[in-house]
Amino acid sequence: MESGADRACHELLLRLAGRLPDEPLWRLRDWLAAGGRSAVGATLPRALLRNRVGLTAAERDLLVQAVGGWGAPRRLLDAVLPVQAPEAHTTEFRADTLVPDVAALCVLAVARGEAGVREVRHTLRLGPRWEQRVVLVLGADRPWTLTGSLQRLLRAHGDRTPCVEVLPGGLEPTLYHQAAIAGSTLLWAAAGEPTPAAPVGASTSA
Description:
The chain is α+β, with helices and mostly antiparallel strands. Helices cover about 40% and strands about 15% of the residues. Strands 1, 2, 3, 4, 5 and 6 form a six-stranded mixed beta sheet that branches.
């Protein structure tokens, strides 16, 4: 059943993209999508503490709203580091100029049939050892459930730590997501949506 806590948790996990490692982030999103609220409540505060990720006042409110009623110990919530603003990270993205592979086409087939979806985009996040696929979906009535579906699909195609960013309408993208969108390739847009194209081979950073 949909709840304000689910939406708050999804928004917080979006804000943590690029700050929390991919491994715990995708698992937390998977548990949220599957209704595993107690697992999220037990794990999210510990993941923040273990990785020394601080939260702004607004993000702390989202944390309490999301997992405060899911069994998260209050002492752990209070122990999460406060910050004035998220730590700046240099994250670079590159538009993928190749023909979409089977995994991308499967993602597209699922996402464009979801209520509220306006665009589906694809980018590569540059890293020291490999390029990580990042799927961006703009819009969705139930973004956390769509995130889980697309993550499981990418896992089935061999992506160990799938990165799926489903941004609901009305939510201001973080700097991480702004850079990812600017450095992405548009796979599909709903009829009537503007379709600005990223420059071929574009590389942007946050």
